[in-house]
Each structure stands twice: as C-alpha cells, then as structure tokens.
Amino acid sequence: MAILIGTVVTWMAVTFFSIIPKKIPPFETIFLFCVNTIFELSIFSILHLNLKFIVVEPGIGNGIADLMLRLIELPLLLVASSNILLYSNKVKWCWVALIILFTLLVQQTLEWMDIITFQRWNIMYTGIYMCVNVAFSSMMTWVITSLDKKETA
Amino acid sequence: MIVYDTRFNANEWFVIVGFCIGYGMLFLLPRRFSYKITLLFIICGIYSGFFYDHSLSVEPKDFYDVNDTSLYQPWDFLSYLMYGPLSYLFFYIWDCVRFKFRFAPLYIFAWGLVAVAFEKFAIVCHVFHYKNGYRLAYSFPIYLLTYSIWSALYYYFKVRQANAKA
Question: Is the dihedral of CA B122, A39, A67, A18 positive or negative?
C-alpha cells in the first residue's frame, strides 16, 4: 500500500511538472532539481537520522515510498514552484500555496497510513519546512539565471 | 546509532585532502565551459554521491555508513562535495580529448575502474563502512550507470551547443 501511495503521488507530481508552462531552460532545470534534492534531503536526514523528529517506519515498502517522495516528488514540485514564481500573473502565489498544501496533505496521509511517524514534529513545521525549500529553490533560480546574464553581458 | 571512531584521523584527512586537491584543480584548470555549465557539471557529481548514499545507505537496505557514525554529520556533507570536481573532470577530459560518442562505453569503463580504485582507497581510510553483505564489486555497475547518465547529459550539451552555433 505504501509503494502504491508513493507511486501515485510521485506520478501526480511528474504529470503536474510536465503540463505546466516552463520558464526555466533545461540545463537550469537539471541544476535546480539536483540542488533542491541535496538541500531537502540534507535537512530531512538531520530531522530523520540525527534528531529522530520524523521517523520512517521499518519495512521495505515504507522505505521505498519515502525515497520516491524525497528523491522525485519533492524536488520536482520545487522546480515547478520556481517555474511558477517566474510567471507574470497574479495567481502564481496561489499555485505555490497549492503545491505546499499538496505536500502537507501527502505528509499527513503518510502519517495516517503509519508510513512515517512524527515525534516532536507536526504538520505546521512541515509547512515551514516546505516554505524554506521553496525560498531556497527560488534563490537558486536567481543564482543560476544571474550567472547566465553575467556571462552574456 | 553505530559509532566507528571518535577521533580526527584518516577519514577526516581523506576528505580534507580530497576536497583541497579537487577544488584546487578546479580553479587551476583553464576554463572550458560557461559558469552555468561548470556549476551544473560540479553539481552532477555532488548529486550522484547524495543520491546513492541516501538511497543505498538508508533503510530499507542500509548497505553502508559514511565516516565516523551512522548519523548524518558535517564530514559526510564535505565528503559529498568531494565528488563535484570528479564529475567536472569527467566532462572536462572528454571535452579536451574530443572522444567520439561511439567510444563512450570505453571512456565510461575506464572511469568506472578509476572510481572503484578511489572507493577502495576511501575504504582503507575508513570513509565507507560496508554493512549487510555489501561489497566493493557491487559499486562498479552503479558507477557505470552513473557515468552513462552523465554521458547522456554531455551528449545533450554538445547537441545544444551545435544547434546554438548553427
């Protein structure tokens, strides 16, 4: 069941990412995907392995589902949020808020399904954690696009 | 939590020396790529190290630990940064030598051997601690797969470069 949830959620993220209009070119997208994974996974490893705030319950299914979400779903959604933040329309913040709400819903579902357990952690902290990730992704978008502009100038 | 050692010894020196040589080389080599592409090629290595260490060395399989403990430490992060110059060198040498793409499997194989030797040295220095039946030989196909993906990225880069020139 855990793998099924992980796969469906990951595929929803892949579909969402593939249908949104892209504002970031391919090489920058690959760069963002990599740095977002590194940043998000580093924080999660500290929360999970060192502090034990979020515990992935033992079991191959739980482990694989969690890895799918950490290595594919979250980085893809973060790259999507960076793309959306480059739109010129005013509803872009609503879209980013929806992405964050979606990740909160996924986290809550994982907890309800006993795939992960929160210890000294709650869904509000996950919300803050996601906002930090979105901010980091936007910052990295600015870094990589500025490098390009600097070189062409 | 497993603690392998608590002193500043071979594994920490391995990371420091590897880091300094790698990034020193990066600054000394003549520039071949744009800043953006350079950063991307460095991030490729760091990401690959992260990806495998956070998928193979955690539950459900937990095949190895990195550095002094099974926890995530600053030394672990520094050791992942060490992979950055290695991936840059992979793309740099390819770009310098201008291998044809039909020779890519040979180039990847040679890099696979270099990576296994590098990992063996890291094991001797106690950077990696294998568990649950994992062996050095299992890393070889992982390296081949990783370098194949990097080669695909390099191919895409060359195609885009050629299109931009045209």
Answer: negative
Residue type for position B64: Y
Q: Is the ipTM reported for this complex over the cut 0.85?
A: yes
DSSP assignment of A17-57 equals: HHHSPP-S-HHHHHHHHHHHHHHHHHHHHIIIIIS-SEEEP
- What residues does A55 pair with on adjacent strands? A117
Mean pLDDT of the region B5-13: 85
φ/ψ of A117, rounded to 5, equals -125, 135
Domain boundaries, chain B: 10-165
Instruction: Assign A20 a pLDDT band (cuts: 50, 70, 90).
Output: very high
CA distance B47 to B49: 5
pLDDT tens digits, A45-59? 888 888 888 888 888
Integer Cα distance of A102 and A8 in angstroms: 13
Query: With contact defined as beta carbons under 8 Å apart, do B18 and B82 qualify?
Result: yes
Q: Does B46 touch chain A (CB under 8 A)?
A: yes
CB atoms B60 and A46 under 8 Å: no
Min Cα distance B161 → chain A (Å) is 12
Task: Retrieve residue B54's tokens.
Answer: 């956070």
Q: pTM, whole model, 2 decimals?
A: 0.92
Residue A17, min C-alpha distance to chain B (Å): 20
Q: What is the pLDDT of residues A110-120, one digit of tens each?
A: 999 888 888 88
